Amino acid sequence: MTHLIVGHEEHGVTRLARELSTTPSLRSAPVIRVLDGIGTDLVRLVARASVHVHVTDRLFGHTAAQTASTLIALGRSTSMSVTLHDLPQPSDGPDRHRQRASAYADILAVSRGVALSSHHESTLLDAVLKLTDRRSLRAVPRAVIPLPIESPRRYVSPDEVGGTHRDLAVFGFLYPGKGYAQALRALSELPADVGLTALGRPSPGHGHLVEELQRQAHRRSRRFTVTGYIPDDRLQEVLARVAVPVAPHQHLSASGSINSWLTAGRRPLVPRSRYVEELDARCPDVLTIYDDLAAAARHALDHPESTTLKPGVPLGPSLDDVGALYAKALASWHH
Question: What is the dihedral of CA 326, 134, 57, 257, to 10 degrees?
């Protein structure tokens, strides 16, 4: 079995695939590394190797249909299993939801097995199969394997929090629906010196979002800052120092950005959702779950200790643990 890893290292799905391929349980398998999943002939490159590939539609096509076409060809040419990320859901909008659902169902149809990163995603996949009238695909072997959460290298003192700005901070690629609009609205109910910082850069195709958010912030007489991509060697320190860590995306199916906050020793503010409640049950006392972002942010500003993790809180599974779970699933799918 071979790891087919597609996309630029900055992409969270690509990074996860690469990190998993280095774990003790998986690192004996060969790796095929592809930066451009759209312009590369994957069938020719892979030849007849059995492969596992982490899939989100933007890595393999400009449209969901193009992604499906690429992966259908790959799945028909070899033994392929997949991890499906960013599962289609109604918040995509009616047309895009149906298009993405059709693509994901078509990919599943040529897969030997499928891994999902949360039970919530498994429920979303069932909804996809119902929407596309592909219920028979429920027979495809399925494994729910959570995203890894490593324990902090060090814990953050409340005295370190905030620095020169008392901003709400959102980490990761900027794209519509991630919660920036909700964060900006919450600023209207917070002290005048509180702004919003986007820790990252726009997702491809969404550069216009920065100007749009800047206009919204300007209308509210609030500061809005975009840092651009933060290199790995600075990331932990940056995440440790922001005033209020927020992951305001209301339609998460699984979240690497939340896990990044936790690994940096922070306790992020997150809106109540089925996925968040699943994560809270697995790792209690590491999230601040809110129904009112402004109220939760006011409390965080007044009590910075509430935004840091206490030593010894349970986090996991570790990257190596996740690798072992993948190894077991892949062995059964590619025997």
Answer: -50
Q: CA–CA separation, 245 vs 266, rounded Å?
A: 7
CA distance 311 to 130: 44
Measured CA distances, 207 to 87, 212, 226 (Å): 23, 9, 11
262-285, pLDDT tens digit by residue? 999 999 999 999 999 999 999 999
Question: How far apart (Å, rounded) are the C-alpha atoms in residues 307 and 304?
Answer: 6
For residue 204, pLDDT beyond 80: no
Residue 253 is predicted with a pLDDT of 81
List, for residues 41-50, the tens digit of each pLDDT value. Answer: 999 999 989 9
Integer Rg of the chain from CA: 20
Contact of 55 with 17, CB cutoff 8 Å = no
Query: Phi/psi at 144 (nearest 5 deg)?
Result: -95, 115
> What single DSSP character describes residue 202?
B
Q: Report the C-alpha gap between 18 and 221 in whole angstroms.
A: 42
243 close to 111: Cβ distance less than 8 angstroms: no
Query: Average pLDDT over the chain, rounded to whole?
Result: 94
Residues whose CB is less than 8 angstroms from the CB of residue 92 and which lie 6 or more positions away in sequence, other chains included: 100
